Amino acid sequence: MERKKILEIKNMNISFCQYQKGMRQEELPVIRDLSLSVHEGEMVAVVGSSGSGKSLLAHGVMGILPYNASMGGEILYRGEPLTEKRIRKLRGKEIVMVPQSTSYLDPLMKVGTQICKGKKDLVRQKKLDQIFSRYSLAKEVQEQYPFELSGGMTRRVMISTAMIENPRLVIADEPTPGLHQKAAKSAMEHFRELADMGAGVLIITHDLELALETADRVLVFYAGYTLEDAKTEDFCKEETLRHPYTKALWRAIPKNGFQYIDGVQPYVKDMPSGCPFAPRCSRCSEKCHGEIPYREVNGGYVRCVYDS
Amino acid sequence: MKTAKFITKQMIKMFLLLLAVSIVAFALMTASPVDPLQANVGQTALGSMSPEQIQKLEEYWGVGQPPVQRYMAWLKDFIRGDMGVSLLYRQDVTKVIAVKLANSLFLMIIAWVMSGLLGFILGALAGMNRGKLIDKVVRGYCLLISSTPAFWIAMLFLIIFGVWLKILPIGLSVPIGVEASGVTFLDRVYHAILPAFTLSITGISNIAMHTREKMIDICESDYMLFAKARGESTWEIFKNHGFRNVLAPAMTLQFASISEIFGGSVLVEQVFSYPGLGQAAVSAGLGSDMPLLMAITMISALLVFGGNLIANLLYGVIDPRIRRGGAVR
Amino acid sequence: MKAFAKKQKTGLTLKKSGWNQRQRLLFWLIAAVLFLMAVCIGGMFLDEAAKTTDFSRKNIAPCLAYPFGTDWLGRNMFARTIRGLSISIVIGISAAAVSAVLAFILGVVSATMGKAADTMVTWFIDLVMGIPHMLLLILVCVACGRGLKGVILGVALTHWTSLARLIRGEVLQLKEQQYIKMARKLGKSNLYIAMKHMAPHLFPQFVVGLILLFPHAILHESGITFLGFGLSNEQPAIGIILSEAMKYMITGKWWLALFPGLMLVLTVVCFYAIGENLRKLVDPASAHK
Fold first, then answer.
1. What domain range is A173 assigned to?
2. Inter-chain CB proximity A70 and C26 less than 8 Å
3. C-alpha span between C126 and C95 (Å, rounded)
4. Full strand arrangement of the beta sheet holding A300-303
5. A228 with A245: CB under 8 angstroms?
6. Residue C142 to chain B, least CA–CA distance (Å)
7. Closest residue, chain B, to C215 (C-alpha)
8. How far off is chain B from C155, nearest CA to CA, in Å?
């Protein structure tokens, strides 16, 4: 069955403007040449380690980048360019974002009112009650303030802010940090449900294992680059994976051997030319320092000079 | 129970501070090299007095007594409501203060409310529209006003409205030559317009600037970003989140500004020769009228601490994190 | 279906002016410093001119020869204004300096000497904040029997509170930093930590705080002299010039009040400009703007 593309991002770049020593200003690229697509009913996870700037991907799509950031590339929503004007109209209605921490909730507004954006009519109230019972949140929670919620409750409240709308695209920014295994799993389940109801779901996370349990496709994000775009099935064995970094990640999963590789990902300022993973890669050669193409391999994509 | 304890604690703190203020003020006045006898009775009058009379006066002023003893005597009287006799006005200080305070309060309350409301609106507007034209205008205004001495603004207004346009009076809270009983309320308002206006204008900048800063902090918060991502319009964002969050700090600011308004009124009243507490403070200071100066210090400190107390209590009412007894994250 | 690019607003304006924000800040900073230096140096040379009376040129409105006009004694108001400003600036700076030293000591004591000291200092801050500045100034001036000493001491005693709070906060924050704790665990002496790790952070903050005290100090100094406390008529600080102008204002001699006041405002604005611009340059967060 051919599903419709909800979101398509082509060659997205996001960079910051920053002062270097003294009076010089410099552009700091955070996301480079990122391409991905999300279909109806599909759940796509972008996985990368903390501090790699992947949150900006969500902010970029929602049109809420900080004022010193600039974005280039192309974003298509349901086949049409998602211009600033269009996202203004769609965000909070068809396109919703689920934020990453309590700080995204207004500390002085009751939870119920906040989910309804201050407009509590009967229809919304009814819907809210349904959502709360579905997420097994007590009705009293609606009258509480964010500081009175536990971590898991906060998470469910934040998903509720998406559920109260009729979203076609859900972008979740780090939905699981600070949650224990079970709560994190159930949070991911909630997103899976949203996808099964027909929405496109884009999850940005650092937790590969969790992503593999629920997502349909996984993008591996490293130092600003997407190194690989693979189906979840490809992670069943190492051979079907394409990029050396993905393979290293796979080997680091406990049941696959718990092997770590040395080194850390490079900081944006001292990025090597060519492949960003080259300094840590066992197969690194001359070729890796030139231009690296992002190409299709076996129904997925990879940014590597080698055929695996 | 918890609230009662909080209030009691705050009250005790306030009384201790008031006591300390009285000690500091008394100590400063005692340190003054000006001889109270000479300052208040006058060199010539002293010369023509008999030694017995001088001794009686000295006793009255407590010359020769150790300062601690004099302070205790003053404190005892003060607690009983007796603030001594003002030698500048040849009246009970209580009476002088009552008249002056009424005049000043009239002025200060107008200025306080006006500067508070306008300052809040301007500050919130500027903060919400950071970097835009309105923000630049408000910021420019604030910088200019906070760089301008209040008394000079008062002088400019006096020249423009009093001397050139002749539409507003040059000074005094009542028309000259009219009996105090013959003064109508309108007369009072008429004479308070310029001083109140000046005080409001100068007061706005402080409130606006601080409200703007709070608003900018709030605008940079994650929840404002999320509200934007949820498609709320600028007005909804302000109504739902901005206003709610800026209210408590703005309230604190507003009550903290009492001290500034009082300081401003000292200068402004002087320029407009408005017979309020501020002018009385200047005369008392210049004329070494210790009992009056002492009383004014106490009254103003009471106003300031009272304002702080109210602000603290209101904060608890507004902020649910305190009201519901949760830890502030 | 064309590619869209959201280009940054500041990015565009930058390219237009050719100067980035930091360079603009630096420009205004230097301009303000030059203005203040000109006033101070001018004041030194205009001492005589400010005092010279000449009844043949009484009450002249502003003209080319006397840009600020002359007063009822035929004194050149331009010379008086510059002279007065330079006196006020010197008084303001000395008062602010005393105040800043007080603030630094109390702030550091409050943050490092334990809970009792902290309570004491915060209590003192509350106390000073409790008396309106103007009134405390009057009280201190009365205590000192007026004169220069009273003004400097008064302004110094009223202005240290906010800077002391700032320094206390900074030191408390620094103490909690991981690298400071590490240094302590590594057995570095307190002095070493203070000099090597704390001073570099504290110093810029302190300097900016000090400079931002100047405008307040000068405003309060002019206020208290205007009220008649403080300096005598032989030292024509700007407050005295303005208070003399008050007496002649009703008769329509507006220039006596207008120009000295304007110059005072300009001076204070310059101090603000220096302080604020310096703060932005020092602030690490401004790197992103």
1. 5-104+167-222
2. no
3. 21
4. A95-98, A169-173, A200-205, A43-47, A217-222, A225-231, A300-303, A294-297
5. yes
6. 6
7. B147
8. 13
**pLDDT at residue B116 tops 90:** yes
- Torsion sign across C-alpha atoms A56, A60, A66, A67: positive
Residue C284 tokens read as: 């690490």
Among C8, C20, C23, select the one facing A68 at the smallest CB separation. Answer: C8
Asked if residues A57 and A69 have their Cβ atoms less than 8 Å apart, the reply is no
Average pLDDT over residues B137-141: 93
Chain B residues within an 8 Å CB radius of A118: 236, 239-240
- Chosen for mutation from C123, C124, C131, C247 (greatest number of chain B CBs closer than 10 Å) is C131
Q: How far is CA A9 from CA A35, A76, B230, in A?
A: 5, 6, 21
Which CATH number covers residue A176?
3.40.50.300
Is residue C7, in this structure, part of any structural domain at all?
A: no
Every domain of chain B and the residues it spans: 93-288
- CA distance linking residue A225 with residue A223, whole number of Å: 6
Question: Which amino acid appears at position B128 of this protein?
Answer: M
- For residue A91, what is the DSSP state? B
Cβ neighbours for A18, distance < 8 A, ≥ 6 positions apart:
A25, A26, A27, A28, A68, C287, C288
Taking every pair of C-alpha atoms in chain B, what is the biggest distance, in angstroms? 87
Instruction: Read off the tokens for B139.
Output: 């910021």
What domain count does chain C have?
1
Task: Give B93-288's CATH code, choosing from 1.10.3720.10, 3.20.20.60, 1.50.10.10, 3.40.630.30.
Answer: 1.10.3720.10
pLDDT beyond 90 at B135: yes
Q: How far does Cα A208 stand from its chain's mean position?
A: 12
DSSP lists the bridge partners of residue A169 as: A95, A200
A263: DSSP letter: S
Contact criterion met (CB < 8 Å) for A108 and B240: no
Residue B19, chain A, CB below 8 Å: the answer is no
pTM of the model: 0.83
Number of domains, chain A: 1
Tens-place pLDDT, residues A50-67: 766 788 889 999 988 887
**Cα(B288)–Cα(C228) distance, rounded to whole angstroms?**
13
Provide the percentage of residues in chain B whose pLDDT is more than 70.
Answer: 84
Distance CA A272, CA A114 (A): 45
Number of Cβ pairs < 8 A linking chain A and chain C: 52
Q: How far apart are CA C152 and CA C149, in angstroms?
A: 5
Looking at CA atoms only, how far is residue B241 from chain A in angstroms? 7
Burial class (CB in 10 A: 0-12, 13-18, 19+), A1: exposed
Question: Which residues, including other chains, have CB under 8 Å from residue A109's CB and lie 6 or more apart?
Answer: A118, A145, A146, B240, B241, B244
